[in-house]
# Entry
Amino acid sequence: MLTFAYGLACVAAGGYVAARIARRLPIKHAAAMGILQAGLTIAAMLSPEANHATRMQWITIAILSIPAALAGGFLYKGKKTQ
# Structure
């Protein structure tokens, strides 16, 4: 559970960084980072060394990667407008 929360926090931080370095459309860049992370999660799930978690855990992490990255993007956008 701790690894799950830590992983999503790192994805949110990645969404924040992607939004920050984007010159335009920070939310779309954060979403793209989340989609990329979801794809990498699925690739990791399919690797032979992925036996420490169930498929449902991997799928849950992949699905929640996009909202987590978007949360980081919205956090950046909220700080930028203040």
User: Anything to note?
Assistant: Residues 55-81 form the longest helix (27 residues).
